[in-house]
Amino acid sequence: MAGLKLVIGNKNYSSWSMRPWVALRASGIPFEEAFIPLYTDAADKQRILDVSPAGKVPILVDGDVTVWDSLAIIEYLAEKFPDKKLWPADRAARAHARAVSAEMHSGFASLRNECGMNLHRPVGPVPLSQETRENIARVQEIWSGCLQRYGGPFLFGSFGGADAMYAPVVHRFRTYAIPVAGEARHYVDAMEALPAFQEWTRDGLAETMLIDRFETI
Questions:
Q1: How far apart are the C-alpha atoms of 170 and 143, rounded to whole Å?
Q2: pLDDT of 45 over the 90 cut
Q3: Cα separation of 147 and 103, whole Å?
Q4: Is the pTM of this model over 0.90?
Q5: Domains of the chain, with CATH numbers?
Q6: How many CB atoms lie within 10 A of CB 129?
């Protein structure tokens, strides 16, 4: 029986691809990685469309089941592998984890636009709008609140789906030299020490850089 296959874009740029990839790797779930480069030509775009009519990565293929969208993939994995505990066992904590994951999934547009994911970018600040500063404050509020409530080192104790959803933000904060303090700083440290996070980072830095192009969503 064929195993899981995760179709991803460039690790340097594709924040959406990073989320389910880190969820799989950190949880020890075996999978095949299939890479289709972004920002290239119509042929690569068609390769994505051949897997999913949505035309975007990531895409999880599990036999005759195809799931696109990072959060939907994490939900699928949580149901298929309940022993991996991608969501907390407690109902209230699970609802909380899903809520902050959905907030990440659908919000923070200003932060995404002004601080696009680009691992090759030299570390340093950029001018930030007031809306982006509010996004940054809200992210750190979420992190600090979860760590205070559930004890850390990850948002809901052990690593889970919510951490996978926020993994690219940890990169953005580092790349754009965004100050992080208190409990939120402890969370960043825990994520950066996660082997799956480190592996994605090494792979992304090893990729060829696409000049002046990066994913912002």
A1: 11
A2: no
A3: 17
A4: yes
A5: 4-84 (3.40.30.10), 91-201 (1.20.1050.10)
A6: 12
Q: How far is CA 178 from the centre of its chain?
A: 18
Question: In the chain, what's the furthest Cα-to-Cα distance?
Answer: 52
Q: Is 200 exposed, middle or buried (0-12, 13-18, 19+ CB in 10 A)?
A: buried
Q: What is the mean pLDDT of residues 122-148?
A: 98
Token duo for residue 125: 């600040």
Greater confidence (48 vs 209) lies with 48
pLDDT of residue 47: 73
Burial class (CB in 10 A: 0-12, 13-18, 19+), 216: middle
Q: How far apart are CA 112 and CA 4, in angstroms?
A: 29
